[in-house]
Amino acid sequence: MGTSCILAKTILKCILKLFFRALKILVPVTDFAAIKRSGISPVHCAAAGAHPKCLELLIQAGFDVNFMLDQRIRKHYDDHRKSALYFAVSNGDLSSVKLLLSAGALPNQDPVNCLQIALRMGNYELISLLLRHGANVNYFCRVNPLHFPSALQYTLKDEVMLRMLLNYGYDTERCFDCPHGDKVHPFYSFEGWTSTVIKDTMVSAQYQLYHPVQQIKLHPLQKPEIKPPSSWMLVR
């Protein structure tokens, strides 16, 4: 293994363990070509670990905030995420999201839009931040022939979020456009509007499988610890 590859892997480990001082030493001598060959950028690790201080250092050193995960790494995630911004949004890490967007991170690069994740979380500040930086308000996931914007499913009971979407050009006309017209709709095996809904159901089922209700005995003020499936881990 070449020295540049060893350096690249060492940087990833430093970020994951939050060795900020070591990171400051290694970054200047890092081979960007080795980072590219690895298929994952230290920026992803900093965003995934919610380490805005490390993230800021990497951005200042010239690391690409729009570096996308290689397919061989992306396949380990159910949502096939690609961008560092997606990791930060998924964590609800507002500081890292601000850093990435200010550095030019693009909000519409992932199969499941970053805005969709923020809407699912109901995080007004994240939603507003993404919309101001060009997140596609009319994004939709296709699991049936309908094409109305998927964001609607998260705003039906939240007037504030709905108003935010409308203010940024939400296409309400699509909600009334059906490709079948008055004809009978064919049967589809998937119920729901988007793949996000399907993923929500899968996550709920997996949690119930690993944490049966009858086995959970908590103090009234204690919150259960939810451990995600191994496929969500950044490094296997």
From TrEMBL:
Residues 1-22 form the signal peptide. The keyword Hydrolase does not apply. It comes from the Eukaryota. ANK repeats lie at residues 38-70, 80-105, 110-142. Keywords: ANK repeat, Repeat, Signal. InterPro entries: Ankyrin-KH/SAM_domain, Ankyrin_rpt, Ankyrin_rpt-contain_sf. Coiled coil: none annotated. PROSITE patterns: ANK_REP_REGION, ANK_REPEAT. SMART domains: ANK. It holds the Pfam family Ank. This is Ankyrin repeat and SOCS box containing 14. It comes from Sus scrofa.
